[in-house]
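Morning run. Coffee first, then this:
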Amino acid sequence: MKRFRFSLRPVSILRAHRESRARELFAAAVRTYVQTEEELARVRVRMTQFEAALFAGRRERFIAAAEAQNLAAYRRESALEVTAERAVIAARAEMAGRRADYLEAHRQLEVVKRLEEKARAGHRLAAHRSEQAEFDDFATRRRGVLPSFSRI
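And here it is:
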């Protein structure tokens, strides 16, 4: 039987590398997204604590200078929260783009794999047919060699 050789093997190797690289980039984007989500959660916890401290401070005496400082600090924290939210949105968009790239690379690799499977099946079928033809030929030659017992 002749050995199977897939003519698109170099294409398969390149697509496998491309798919592997896309998977790594997607994993990195997922990690970045998770980190930005965690940072946003930390900022929101700080905001909640800051708001609680502000409201608790208002129950006591009102000192305008301290309140102005607290309000400026609150605005800085609010700006940090907005920045963290934007980072999460950007990371989510990057993750979605990387996911689409990975799915496309995976789909292209699967196309080549399916082509290889079909080629292997065709090669196997041709080998089985060739083998069967050899058996038939052998049986035909053998039939002519054996003496016939019907003459006795």
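Residues 64-145 form the longest helix (82 residues). Good start to the day.
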